[in-house]
Amino acid sequence: MAKKSLIQREKKRQKLEQKYHLIRQSLKKKIRSKVSPLSLSEKTKMREKLPSLPRNSAPTRLHRRCFLTGRTRANYRHFGLSGHVLREMVYECLLPSATRSSW
Questions:
Q1: Using CB atoms within 10 A as the burial measure, which of 9, 16, 33, 35 is most buried?
Q2: Continuous segment of H or E residues that includes residue 8
Q3: 10 Å Cβ neighbour count for 44?
Q4: Are residues 81 and 56 in the same domain?
């Protein structure tokens, strides 16, 4: 089980990312827009605004966590579980779409 403080920190990052998502996307869209080309100085001003946003609002700082244990490593997106929890659940036949391999 992951520490509760780490899980809370991750939830805080998710809220920040949602809060600043539209701002970040609009800045990036303005920088990349080819419809109304910006001068080089205008683009640099736009790029200077991006780092002024909070660091934890960047989507790359988010981690997928296991739904049951909160573990960050070896997560399967389809199930939302970490590898060892997924394995245990498959062995106990708790996941209907997963089967053990045998050869």
A1: 16
A2: helix 4-32
A3: 11
A4: no
Q: Are residues 9 and 53 in the same domain?
A: yes
Domain that holds residue 73: 64-102
Q: Compute φ and ψ for 75, nearest 5 degrees.
A: -95, 140
| 74 and 47 both lie in a single domain | no
- Tell me the CA end-to-end span of the chain in Å, nearest whole number: 33
Q: Which residue has the tokens 């391999």?
A: 101
Rg (CA), the chain: 20
At 71-98, the pLDDT tens digits run 888 999 988 999 999 999 998 989 888 8
pLDDT at 85: 92
69 close to 79: Cβ distance less than 8 angstroms:
no
The total number of structural domains that make up the chain: 2
